[in-house]
Write a structure and sequence with these properties.
Blueprint: H1 2-17, H2 26-39, E1 43-45, E2 48-50, E3 57-58, H3 70-77, E4 81-90, H4 95-105, H5 107-110, E5 117-123, E6 126-134, H6 143-158, E7 162-164, E8 167-169, E9 176-177, H7 179-195, H8 208-214, E10 221-228, H9 233-241, H10 244-251, E11 257-264, E12 272-280
Parallel strand pairs: 3-5, 9-11
Antiparallel strand pairs: 1-2, 4-6, 5-6, 7-8, 10-12, 11-12
Helix pairs in contact: 2-4, 6-9
Length: 281
């Protein structure tokens, strides 16, 4: 068994260099599933109420055994880090015990919208969990074009029956682009980026429905999905489909219109923020 542990970092590095995901051990996979369930529903943390987040994705380059310094190891693995944090646990026998400790002591880190990737290394009762956000890739078009691309992906997803968490949804009609909802989505993305926050309720206390009403949108219903630290519409859509609450909005047949946009602020924690605003005229 110890021989496998010594070989694992070399294997993980090889898979990462080939662009292939490295398999997690069963307990590591169980812990990742628990972390993503935790992030997928609103949580109370340190006295604050925090909303649901898209799931973390496993990245073999972040599977770092004890003894490796975080930043040099990520550089050596070829991970283009902007922000990363390492959590070490000693004592948990299994994923359930590790999750209990993480919730009790690291809820802020687990519920940080900046983090999009994770690596989990376990050796007996020693765990190392690395969460990270990579550099943003260049090449995004303007927010209208990327919003339309996101709309196309959402409509492709709505065209098929889908299971969102415990709920099964039939295929739903395609959404049409609404320019006003697009402008509102851009404003909220910009507010999050410039204000360095991640929430449906803005700093003035307005909800998505409030903002739509104030802007003159006369629809019967409004819904909103947000994302952060993801730099392509495809990544955003994948994260939303993997999150039960976000997926439910995407598949809601009541919605008929959409506006979507991103905004970037290099000084913000997450770098890039996305908003999709759904409406029923």
């Amino acid at each position: 068994m110890s021989r496998l542990f010594r070989l694992w970092p070399l294997l993980a590095g090889l898979l990462a260099s080939l662009g292939m995901p490295a398999a997690h051990g069963s307990e590591a996979s169980t812990l990742l599933d628990a972390l993503n369930r935790y992030r997928s529903t609103p949580q109370a943390c340190a006295g604050d109420a925090l909303g649901e987040l898209p799931p973390l994705r496993a990245d073999a380059r972040l599977i770092l055994p004890e003894g490796q310094e975080l930043q040099p190891a990520l550089v050596a693995a070829g991970y283009p880090m902007v922000h990363a944090q390492s959590i070490r646990l000693s004592g948990p026998r299994d994923a359930a015990a590790a999750m209990a400790l993480l919730q009790a002591h690291y809820c802020r880190t687990l519920l940080d919208a900046r983090f999009v990737h994770i690596g989990i290394h376990q050796a007996e009762r020693d765990w190392r969990i690395v969460l990270a956000r990579p550099l943003l890739a260049a090449g995004l078009a303007d927010w209208q074009r990327e919003g339309q691309t996101l709309l196309e992906g959402i409509n492709a997803a709505r065209a098929l029956p889908r299971r969102c968490g415990e709920q099964t949804y039939p295929a739903a009609p395609a959404l049409s682009w609404n320019p006003l909802l697009g402008e509102l989505a851009e404003r909220h993305s910009r507010a999050m980026a410039n204000g360095n926050f991640f929430a449906h309720v803005d700093h003035e206390g307005y909800t998505p429905a409030d903002r739509a009403e104030l802007a003159g949108y006369a629809g019967q219903a409004v819904g909103e999905n947000i994302a952060a630290a993801l730099d392509t519409p495809a990544q955003v859509l994948t994260g939303w489909l993997d999150s039960p609450a976000h997926c439910a909005n995407l598949m809601n047949a009541r919605f008929q219109e959409l506006g979507a946009a991103y905004a970037i602020d290099p000084q913000s924690d997450a770098g890039i923020y996305w908003t999709a605003l759904f409406g029923t005229p």
